[in-house]
Amino acid sequence: MPTPFSRFAELCRKLESTTKRTEKISYLVAFLRSLDKDEVAAAVSFATGRPFPESDERVLDVGGQTIWKVHRKGGQSALIQLALTILEVYRTFEKIARAAGAGSRQRKETLLDTLLSRLSSEERDYLMRIVFGEMRIGAVEGVVLDAIAEAASINLESIRRANMLLGSLPKVAELALTE
Fold first, then answer.
1. Residue 31, CA distances (Å) to 3, 24, 42 in order
2. Which residues pair with 4 in a beta bridge?
3. For 54-103, where are the alpha helices, taking DSSP H only?
4. What does the alpha-carbon distance between residue 162 and residue 178 come to, in Å, rounded to a whole number?
5. Burial class (CB in 10 A: 0-12, 13-18, 19+), 107
6. How far apart are CA 20 and CA 99, in angstroms?
7. Rounded to an integer, what distance in angstroms lies between the CA atom of residue 15 and that of residue 151?
8. Tell me: the pLDDT tens digits for 44-61?
9. pLDDT of residue 79
10. How far is residue 97's CA from residue 51's CA, in Å, rounded to a whole number?
11. Is residue 35's pLDDT more than 80?
12. 3-state class of 160 per DSSP?
């Protein structure tokens, strides 16, 4: 069953509420173990404050002016409010990143508006932190590596080595938890 973005926001709130590394790792382990295999990479990217893995060249190219326009409209495009999933957010980010050429700014605004209109205020806050790369919830690389190792029952040194070779925490998490 797809994981609602609201569960991700709940994880962020928990991570933000503690300074204890062991608690952060524990929260991350439980969350990672609960994900469907196709959600792992996106969730790890989001937790580290990125719409895509760090090694991915894609960018959203969504700045303050676009956010301001969407915010002024109220982010209320969607008439039916269905729970948004982690993968839907990721796929929308992919569409935003692909938008190019004439009219692309409007397409980006529309996609972002639709996305924001389906989120609670807390979820919007965490989504904006991802967009701007300012998550600041304590899910730093070392904590995430520890959580991946524990969630996958793989020794930490192997996870660190894989991260050095692949250069992508989301890919390491995906491989460790699904292969």
1. 10, 11, 13
2. 85
3. 64-73, 86-98
4. 14
5. middle
6. 40
7. 16
8. 999 999 999 888 898 888
9. 43
10. 10
11. yes
12. helix
Sign of the C-alpha dihedral, residues 60, 64, 69, 73?
positive
Residues 6+ apart with CB under 8 A from 138: 15, 16, 18, 19, 24
How many angstroms separate the most distant Cα atoms in the chain? 50
Distances in Å between the Cα of 74 and the Cα atoms of 10, 89, 178 are 23, 19, 39
Q: What is the DSSP letter of 35?
A: S
- Taking alpha carbons only, the member of 2, 171, 175 closest to residue 88 is 2
* pLDDT tens per residue, range 110-134: 999 999 989 999 999 999 999 998 9
Q: Which residue carries 């990479």 as its tokens?
A: 41
Q: State the average pLDDT over residues 97-103.
A: 93
CA angle 121, 80, 63 (to 5 degrees): 45
Structure tokens given for 25: 């790792």
Beta bridge partners of 85: 4
Model pLDDT, residue 77: 45
Amino acid of residue 148: I
Of 146, 168, 169, which is closest to residue 157 (Cα–Cα)? 146
Distances (CA, A) of 41 to 47, 99, 139: 10, 22, 14
Note the residue count of the chain. Answer: 179
Amino acid at 137: I
